[in-house]
Amino acid sequence: MADRKRALVFANGLITNDDSVRELLANGDLIIAADGGAMHCARLGIKPDYLIGDFDSLPDPDLDQFIEQGVVMIHHPARKDYTDLELALLHARSLGVEDILVFGGLGARWDQTLANLLLPASIGLMDTKIHLVDDRQLLTMLHGSENHTILGEPGDVISLIPISGDTHGVTTQGLEYPLDAETLHFGATRGISNTLTGRRASVSIQQGTLLCVVIHLDQKA
């Protein structure tokens, strides 16, 4: 499975729209469930390739069913230094995956939600493109010294939020309120609620990290 380029990772948070998940499924995707995220897979009729975690969120009958289906089980002790989602993301990265969609990574618990939002900025994962999906909202970490492309439809909402101190040299194209080598200050809200003027925009950063939130207003994510 090391030749797969995209993974779908299911965490144990909230999924508010099952249809939006199904719309993003594609043949050949690697499917990884992080502990209780396996229950989302069961509800959606999706067989995971891997089930990773300490399995404290899954009743034994459900575990047995996944084993019978041939799901590869990767068990970790309950006392560990990583969350189940981080372990799932690291496993996907170890398989050579370049692009990851995370479902169920938001909601339910604020501590878990905030930690999950920051996972793509961690040293072990920052070279992998990770998108957290919540219905029509897509959250992606943008790192400095890279050029980033944002796809959507005219009118889609784009927010750029500094998360590692001030972010310098931010330049955008294709947004209603453009930035030209400017600084977005940590804790300030200048980058909130911009909009796409077409179907494509670009963001470049000289130094720092931005959380990019795309809110798709149409019926296609």
List keywords for this structure.
221 residues, alpha/beta, Rossmann fold, 2 domains, four-stranded antiparallel sheet, elongated
How would you characterize the overall build of this protein?
The chain has 221 residues and is α/β, with parallel strands linked by helices. It has two domains: 130 residues, Thiamin pyrophosphokinase, catalytic domain (Rossmann fold); 74 residues, Sandwich (Jelly Rolls). Helix content is 19%, strand content 32%. It is built from five helices and 14 strands. It has a ten-stranded mixed sheet with strand order 4-3-2-1-5-6-7-14-9-12. A hairpin with an 8-residue loop joins strand 10 and strand 11. The longest helix has 11 residues.
What structural category arises from helix and sheet content?
alpha/beta
Question: Helical percent range?
Answer: 10-25%
What is the β-strand count?
Answer: 14
Number of helices: 5
Oligomer: single chain
Q: Name the CATH homologous superfamily of the largest domain.
A: Thiamin pyrophosphokinase, catalytic domain
| Low-pLDDT sequence parts | none
Number of domains: 2
Q: Could you give the distance between the termini? A: 26 Å
Taking all Cα atoms into account, the compactness measure Rg is: 18 Å
**In the CATH classification, which architecture of the largest domain applies?**
3-Layer(aba) Sandwich
Strand content: 25-35%
Quote the average pLDDT.
92
The outline comes out as elongated
User: Which strand order does the major sheet show?
Assistant: 4-3-2-1-5-6-7-14-9-12
- Name the helix and strand elements from N-terminus to C-terminus, one letter apiece: EHEHEHEHEHEEEEEEEEE
CATH top level of the largest domain is Alpha Beta
**Main β-sheet: number of strands, strand sense, barrel status?**
10 strands, mixed
Which fold name fills CATH's third level, the topology of the largest domain?
A: Rossmann fold
